[in-house]
Amino acid sequence: MLPKTERRVSGTGLSPREAAFVTGLSEKTINQAIDRAEVETLPARRVEDRERMLAFPELVYLRLRRQVGELLSPEGKRRLRRELGQAAGEDEHPEAVNIGALEVNVAPEVKSLKERLAEMERLWSFITIHPDVRAGEPVVRGTRIGVHTLADLSRQGAPAEELLEDYPALTPESLQAALTWAGMYPRRGRPPRAPWKDGVVIRRGS
Question: Which listed CATH number (1.10.260, 1.10.1660, 2.40.160, 1.10.10) goes with 6-112?
Fold first, then answer.
């Protein structure tokens, strides 16, 4: 399924693959936490939505669990998650949370996550999706170069120098952004819902 860029704009959460990029955890670890109900997913916006989405407080919890999880009992982990869940957004987290005698420093993880979210936004600045360009295939902004085409060539062994020579419209930065983006949003065949359905074009600018 192609990503819907309004997720980041409206703050409606991140998919497990996006959360893996932001937290530095594996997608498997994040999905396991969801399956165990250790973290909660956001309610689906539409009946046909099947992708599980995580809000920012859940990302903070997952990062902290990696840092202090061995020091906390199951009840301590639940309490930590409850404390973090009281924050409504990215800018409302406490500096620290006290779990019994243990003080958990929250601020560094929040700062790190925000930096990774900004990096994900930066990746999107290099990509555009529009129905009139290659039938809605993600392309490098300002070109008709398919992002997944570049990723396929890279996987087949084409070095960055060769890709930059074959596609002079690319820069080293835009090429790297495209390859990273393609890894976060792999091609999965024809999407069940076109990203421009109902006449709404899903893209970031022109």
Answer: 1.10.1660
